[in-house]
UniProtKB/TrEMBL annotation:
GO biological process: carbohydrate derivative metabolic process
PANTHER family: SEDOHEPTULOSE 7-PHOSPHATE ISOMERASE / DNAA INITIATOR-ASSOCIATING FACTOR FOR REPLICATION INITIATION, SUGAR ISOMERASE (SIS)
Organism: Trichloromonas acetexigens
GO molecular function, one term: carbohydrate derivative binding
Listed name of the protein: SIS domain-containing protein
Transmembrane segments: none
SUPFAM superfamilies in UniProt: SIS domain
Amino acid sequence: MPMTSSGGERMKQSKIHLAVKEQTALLGECLAGHGEGLERLAGELVAGFNQGGRLLLAGSGPLGTVAELVADLFLYRLSFERPSLPALALGRDPSLAACMLRDGQGRAYFSRQLRALAGNNDLLLVLADSNRDEALLDLLPLARQLECKTALIVPEGAPLAGEEVDFLFALKTVAPTRLLDMGLFMGQMLCELVEGELFGT
């Protein structure tokens, strides 16, 4: 028997309520567990910016889009007019990706860009999901070799969670949609903290 419209509406409202409840709980846990770390990371970024450094970002799969959005927040603005802050998302070159995949060099996609761009005052922020990503596994050791500071946002227990980094933000979720939300939220918070330190807002 088909569900009545009122029953379907109740189910939709229930799913929405549950999603909001889950997200609110995750955000609360994130701020409680990682708020201090985000403040330290913001301070490191400010120090790097003042010495001519940049924020470089990379993301696994759909988190690559989040990395691009966060870079744009730094380049343009979060909530008020101010000078651009130097941020760049790796992975914005589809023709390079196609060439490297054709030649069997896909795992070097991020690291090849980092080697060409990075300086020792730069900071690399990686957003990873629960899947094994060879390109990111190669990227973090190279960043340390190039004397970049490193930060990682990753689910607990993921393949990248054991990597040596300067700032680790291990999240208590592996749900893809929640990771996207949390990655963007943490990127926005980081930008807001940096803006506050640099421009007194």
